[in-house]
Structures are given as structure tokens and as C-alpha cells.
Design goal:
The structure is a homodimer. The first copy, chain A, is α/β, with parallel strands linked by helices. The first copy, chain A, has two domains: 251 residues, Carbamate kinase, CATH 3.40.1160; 146 residues, 2-Layer Sandwich (VC0802-like). Chain A is 36% helix and 27% strand. Chain A contains 13 helices and 18 strands. In chain A, a hairpin with an 8-residue loop joins strand 4 and strand 5. In chain A, helix 2 runs antiparallel to helix 3 and helix 12 packs across helix 13. The relative contact order of chain A is 0.11. At the A-B interface, helix 1, helix 2 and helix 3 of A face helix 1, helix 2 and helix 3 of B. Chains A, B: It comes from Massilia psychrophila.
Amino acid sequence: MALIVHKYGGTSMGSTDRIKNVAARVAKWHDAGHQVIVVPSAMSGETNRLIGMAKEIMDQPDPRELDMICSTGEQVSVGLLAMALLAIGKDAVSYAGWQVAIKTDSSFTKARIQSIDDTKVRADLGAGKIVIIAGFQGVDDDGNISTLGRGGSDTSAVAIAAAMKADECLIYTDVDGVYTTDPRVVSEARRLKTITFEEMLEMASLGSKVLQSRSVEFAGNYRVPTRVLSSLTDPLMSLAEEAVSGTLISFEEDTNMEQAVISGIAFNRDEAKITILGVPDKPGVAYHILGPVAEANIEVDMIIQNQSVDGKTDFTFTVSRGEYAKAMGVLETVKAAVGAASVSGDAKVSKVSVVGVGMRSHVGVASQMFRTLSEEGINILMISTSEIKISVLIDEKYMELAVRALHKAFDLEKA
Amino acid sequence: MALIVHKYGGTSMGSTDRIKNVAARVAKWHDAGHQVIVVPSAMSGETNRLIGMAKEIMDQPDPRELDMICSTGEQVSVGLLAMALLAIGKDAVSYAGWQVAIKTDSSFTKARIQSIDDTKVRADLGAGKIVIIAGFQGVDDDGNISTLGRGGSDTSAVAIAAAMKADECLIYTDVDGVYTTDPRVVSEARRLKTITFEEMLEMASLGSKVLQSRSVEFAGNYRVPTRVLSSLTDPLMSLAEEAVSGTLISFEEDTNMEQAVISGIAFNRDEAKITILGVPDKPGVAYHILGPVAEANIEVDMIIQNQSVDGKTDFTFTVSRGEYAKAMGVLETVKAAVGAASVSGDAKVSKVSVVGVGMRSHVGVASQMFRTLSEEGINILMISTSEIKISVLIDEKYMELAVRALHKAFDLEKA
């Protein structure tokens, strides 16, 4: 008997019929003798509907009140799923985040989980019940409802699995695992049976939106074995088969049985690059440029500062394309303040990254990457590296070509 | 400065534009220096939508889980209304029932309020905030969400007004007050400026669906001055005018300034009558007949047992028409058990009642009522009386005629 946490996304919970499918799948695990906790998202479209109404009333909805409203989507889901289980003769009980309680800080709309009380849940499991807990939400010390931000149900599921010391957290979604790259770009892309949590973290933060980055961090910090698998399979497929499907996020580097240097190619099409030229090179210049950008709530990704020449330097950074115009507006003000010569930008750039824990012990990954791109005639605009990742910024029009060439160069189509 | 509770129904909260209207009206009261607590219902249609999904999953939805789901409608309303107030510069905060906390018993879908903690609300009011509390819901001792049943937001509002010792509870609805009878039946029907809570209780329980009966009971038990008034007026109409509009439910008989013997004519078209004939007249016969009916969850209204002849008696009672077939089914079984001769019924009967605290001190109300019906050639099938009400059951086809004749006979069209 194992303790298993299941998480189902909005598409899996998208209609009453789909909820019945989820119930059948959950019941199958329970029937096999496992204790099961289920963390569902809101029915697809519901959160957007609620945010839409809020925005009709307030351009910038008040965060506390927005959480009050948006948390109802998951509350409806848990109630419906509990009923679907009761309807097929399983004992089930649903809880909102505050009922467990899932304690968070008070950063409404992007709260962080601080603690989870497992008393009630453990008693229910002991009594043979299937426990259904609303994802995406919690409660702060003052009893206000909080939400964890978009995709927060993944984080809820992993955090609950950690608090309950679950044997595995199964994230059911509309893809059947993590791929070496996006199969829509490279048809030879291959599903990975395992990936280390560090690689997963890089893949998630680089735009492979299988799991929210924060949930991967949580899985890593608390060493929660987490599996990404499909909710679109027959709910009554054999449990033995289902239990090894998808992609397992592991914490042992040697579980990377495939011993590949590179695990995957991640990419993010919608990047924009901004350069501020001829900045007097004085201490604090980076802060004076990026401080106002951060204050405007614009997330900055890659940052480069050139070698200074004649006491002047150039400073380049990237933002997501949707925030390009806003960032350029901020920079116009900053330009005068820091005494820069000019500001230029390019909103048609993309980021391509090779990711793999194997590169730690293998030299030459960077040179192979750069040679491959060079052979395809692709100019590199910026480079950024971490221990297990090398990212390059390139012209948007070469993105697919770069991904395909790199996928082939690192033999990722081969198991 | 007064402490005022406002309650708004689903129609008043039916769209984001209407919610903005509610906010404008609430702000007007707050601007005039009053402390305001607002109790809104779910947006119209929302509760039915949620129940509909529940029934797609479970024919008889589990009550606890149904409350989990249905309580979200009001939670969305309070959040949106708080935003609408914040958007026009008023300080406002919303609470779900459990956050206040509004404690109830554990009778899910029809819970009763046991206590209300006023600490948080009083602190907010003291800080100048408008406090918005979800109607219709509470929380039981085990932290489960409960709902009060249909129309429960009225009860929430009155109960909160009682707990807070509010100066007045204003129930905003889509009618502009309580009338001497339904204006759709008698065009001369007149709005009452005041009505005693006992009269209101009889009117409410007799099908004048302006206020849920339980909310009137609450108002009566805790002597909460409660006013029914229209939410369809211009939200910016003068506060002086609005404050005396509608109908005030009062607790002093002498506030019945109009000194009328009869306050109104209530009626209920959809009644059905069932007679069980030739029942051996032994102790326990009423119990043996009505026990099984109650067990089948069928509400019985009027009950008559005839004088027994030759040790046999007839027993007649009424149920709402929608439960007629079900009740007849139960009676077929009962018939054999009690040794009755036969069961007969009539599903086309209606109840008409005259209501008024004035009849306590005036003889002759009953005789005037019976004479009026007799002059119209209307046969009386059953009679039932209380201290402030006389009800008769008549053939459905005479209902409008009876109401009009009685309205005129008791001079109700005259102020």
C-alpha cells in the first residue's frame, strides 16, 4: 500500500463527464489498495471567466478580493469530484485550502505555501476515504483566502505530497510526459522516461510549460518523486502500465539511466532584447538601469554588460515580448538619468537552450552547440550559461531550424 | 450615525453593471455617515448552474459536497461587490461565512445559524470599512461549509443585523414592498407602509414570497427592524426618500398606524386536498396516517378530522400540488394499514387567507369573510384559523374572484 497524490488540470476537469473519468481513474488506484489524495484544478475556462468579471469591475482587481473570487473555481471542482466518487460507491470528502489548512503568506494572487496541517487528511485516509483538496489556494494567518498564481495547483499537489510524505505525486495533464523538445517543432522528439529535477527546473523555466517552475522547486527541495503523465488515456487502463507511464522527475543523477549528456532542447519564442548604449561605466549602473524595470514588475531574463571602452559601456537584457513596449517606456526615463547615449531594441528574438545534468562532466557541449548553429548560418546575439544549461538568443526566424539542428546534433532522437 | 445591514438578491447582483449600481447605493449610505454591512446573494442563475452540474454527477447530490459547491456563488458576489466599492474609492472588505464566523448546525443544505462572531466585523466597521458578508452560508463546528437553503441570504442578513444589533436591516429586492395582496390579481392592491412581523410571517408562509419565512422568524425573535424595499430605483435617489420607502416590518402592534383589522389577503394557488374515508376512530389514527407522509418528506398544511360516526371517521389534509401524486402513493399503502374504506383527492384547490393582527380584537372577521365568499357563490372546502389569520380552501377556479371580493370587503384598497 502506497500513499499517492493525483493532480488533475483544468482540461481533465473540464466537464461533468470528464470529472466522472477522473473519478474512475482515482477509484482504480484506491481499489488497488493505495491511499489517494486528489488535487484538482478549476474546470477549464472558469478562472478566466472569474477574472474577466473582476476586470469588468476593476481594471486592476484588488488582489485579496480577486483571490476570494478565483479560489471558488477549485472549490467547485473538489465538490463535484467528491460527488463523482460517492456516486460510484467510494467514500470521499473534499476540502478547500483553508479547511486542511494550507497556510500561505499574504502575497495575494502569488502566495507561497508556508505549512500544511496533515491531521485531518491523515485521519480521513486512515478511515479509508479518498481525500480531495482544492489546488491553487490556501489561507493566510489572518484567515484571508490566498491563491498561488497561475498553475498553482501543481505546486499545491507537490506541497501536499511533501507534507504527507507521499510515495509519489502523479501530475495528470494533457501531454503524456516531458519530451526532448516540443514534438510540434521536431517530429523526432522523444519522451523521456526520467529527468532529474534540476533539468526539469530548467526546462520548466525555459518555457516547456509541462509543470509550473515553483512546483518543480518544491519537488526538488522536498525530494517528492513526481511523475508527469497523461489524463487522456483510458481511465481503466491497467494500473501496472499507468504507474510507469509518463516521465518521472527523479533526484538521483544516476537514475538518468540514459546517460545522455543533454536531456532536451527548450526554447522560448517570445523574447525581446533591449540595449542601452554608451552608459558611463560607474558603480551602480546595472542597478540604476534594472531597478526601475523591476519596480515596473517586468521580469528580466538574460543580462549582458560589455567590456567598457573609454569609460562607456553597453548594457543588454531580455524581457518577454509582451512587456517589451512597457520596458522601452521605462528605459526612455532611465536613459536620461544614467546619461546613456541611446536605447535600441529588437522584439523579434527567441531563446534556445540545451539542458542536461550530463554536461557537468562533459566538456565540449558549448562548442558543439555553437558549431551546430554556425553550420546552419545562425548568428548568436547573446549567450547565457548555468551549470546544466546553455542558452542562446537568436533571430526569431531561425528558432525552429536551431531546435531541429541541435536535437539532431545531440542525438536526442535516439533512446 | 446608524449601523445598517443591506441585503441584495440575485437579480440585483445579476451582472457586473448591476453590481456597480449596488456599490453606488451602498456608498451613498456610507457617505451619509452610516456604518454599512452588505449581504449579497449569488448572481442570478449561478446557484441553479451549480446545482445542475452536481445533478449531472449525482442524482441526489451529497448534501455536504453540494454546500461546498453552492456556497461559491455568494463568495464570488462578495468579492465582486468589494471590488466595485474599492473601484469608487470606498474602503471595503469581503468575507465568506466561515471567515466571520457564522456558525451553523451540520444540517447541510438547510443549516440553521447558531451564532455569529462580531469581532472582526466590528473592528472593520470601526476602521471605516464597508463589510460585505456572503449570505446563505456558514460553517459547522467541524469546519465544514454549510448553506441555509433557498432564500437563505435573507436569513443571513437578518441574523447578522441581530448579532450586530443593527439599527435596521434593509432587504433590497425586485418588488417595492409588501402589498395588501398580489397586484397581478387585484389591481387596487396597495403597498403597506408597515406590517407587524406576525402578519409578515403569515404572509410569507402563505406564499407571498417577498421574504423567506425563516428570516421573518429571526427578525421577530431578535426584534430586528427590517424593511423590504426596491433595488430597481435610481441608486442615487435621495437617502431621506429611500429610508422610508418599501414596507417596514415592525414589532409594536401600535405601529400598525393604519389600524386596519385586516392587513392583507394571501393566497396559494397550488394546493391539493386528500381525504381518507371510513377510518376506524382509534387513538393514534392521525399519527398512523400522517407519519408515513412526513417520512416521505411531504409537507402537510391544513388538517381536518371529522366527527366520528359509528366508530368511523374521515380525515382530510392538504399538500402542495407538486407532491400530490407522491402523497396519494403513500396513502394507498396507509389505507390498508389503518383499515380505511377509501382515499379520494382533489388537486385543483387553492387556499385564500385573510391576515391581520387587528382581528384579535375584532369579532366578526370570520363571518364577514364567509359571507363575502357566500355572496360570490364560492363553496368553502376546508377552514383553518390562527390568532391573526383565517384560511379557506376553495376550488381553484374561484381563487382570483375570492381574493378580489375579500380585498374589497375589507376595504384594503383604502389607505
